[in-house]
């Protein structure tokens, strides 16, 4: 499963009213779409998430989180800490699942990783948005057509197509910002839109040494691409405060979308693989599902 899948965004994006931050929740994350005669499915249907943070302007400012699967195994973790004017945010996780044929038979599996490092400006805009630079590296399954001179060449399954990206990051967590505003009402109900995205990035995409790729001599083939990689969440939340404790509960739907296009126009608009080779005009990975959580500040 492709992850970040939860937002642990800037601590100090607005005036800090509490030192301790705790969050509990769960989310679903299923692959969307199919490729030719197959589709991908996550090997974990429901993930529990735990978030924490502690900030003290004088001594320490740190936050993090852990995602657990149904067997209480750690799937992902995130860790962040603040410097004088920057926020460093690190994430590592797994992208794993099964390859399912159009007859609903399991024909393969994939077990890959995700890594992300973001350097953010601690001075958010007046709306709470934060900007920075980020790098990512992850592997995803992808199906290629091999050109053999026929109308439809053989389909080659890459189980670990690697994407390495660098680009401009945009980060926004309205629920966190609301709980940390200077004057918060006793109770409040509203809708929210949150995002954590590498909004515009340049990527180097390389095929793996999966059996199909090696058999046809197209392992290690590289492509230069550009696009967008991000998490988007839309939902509703209810917030309240009492006796110095602030709490928010949210229910929403999240979308994780990685969309890449080839920078070469000749490749971008190609409709068939060249003879004896493969091509990659675009690459998309989409995961989606319901999300719910509770956040407490005290």
Task: Explain what the structure shows.
By secondary structure, this protein is mainly beta. The chain has one domain. 5% of the residues lie in helices and 62% in strands. A hairpin with a 4-residue loop joins strand 7 and strand 8. The model is unreliable at 1-18 (pLDDT under 50).
Number of helices: 3
**Shape by Cα distribution:** elongated
As a percent range, the share of strand residues is over 45%
Strands, count: 14
Order of helices and strands: EEEEEEEEEEHEHEEHE
Helix content: under 10%
Structural class: mainly beta
Q: For this entry, what is the oligomeric state of its chains?
A: single chain
Ranges where pLDDT stays below 50 over 5 or more residues in a row are 1-18
> Which strand order spans the largest sheet, edge to edge or round the barrel?
1-4-5-6-7-8-9-10-11-12-13-14
Radius of gyration: 21 Å
N/C terminus separation: 33 Å
Provide the number of structural domains: 1
SSE layout and pairing:
Layout: E1 20-27, E2 30-31, E3 38-42, E4 47-56, E5 60-68, E6 74-82, E7 86-101, E8 106-121, E9 130-145, E10 155-172, H1 174-179, E11 187-206, H2 211-215, E12 222-242, E13 245-262, H3 265-268, E14 282-297
Antiparallel strand pairs: 1-4, 1-14, 2-14, 3-7, 4-5, 5-6, 6-7, 7-8, 8-9, 9-10, 10-11, 11-12, 12-13, 13-14
